[in-house]
Amino acid sequence: MVLQCRNLECGWTGVASIIIERTIVQSAMADPRITLPIAITRRKSANAPTPAPANDDGLEVAAEAM
Q1: How far apart are CA 38 and CA 20, in angstroms?
Q2: DSSP 4
Q3: For 7-66, how does the pLDDT look when each residue is reduced to its tens digit (9 = 90+)?
Q4: What is the model's pLDDT at position 4?
Q5: Interacting residues of 23 by C-beta distance below 8 A, sequence separation 6+
Q6: Which secondary structure element, helix H or strand E, spans residue 61, and what is its range?
Q7: pLDDT computed for residue 63 by the predictor
Q8: 0.85 cut: is pTM over it?
Q9: Which run of H or E residues covers position 2?
Q10: How crowded is residue 23: how many other Cβ atoms within 10 Å of its Cβ?
Q11: CA separation (Å) from 44 to 8, 23, 25, 41, 47?
């Protein structure tokens, strides 16, 4: 899948791939010949720390150092 920034001045273009890892809600038109794993619902603690985004490369920290 090819992605492009909607801002015409930006010009960024990239390639992405999508992987279906598990089912959250089963299909209403399920085929009994097909079996997919179903995700286990996990609740997050209200005081659990928020993980840093996967795309956080520390640029904000580098800009502060300047």
Answers
A1: 12
A2: E
A3: 989 999 999 998 888 778 877 887 888 877 776 777 766 677 776 666 666 555 544 544
A4: 94
A5: 36, 37, 38, 39
A6: helix 59-65
A7: 47
A8: no
A9: strand 2-4
A10: 13
A11: 39, 19, 19, 10, 8
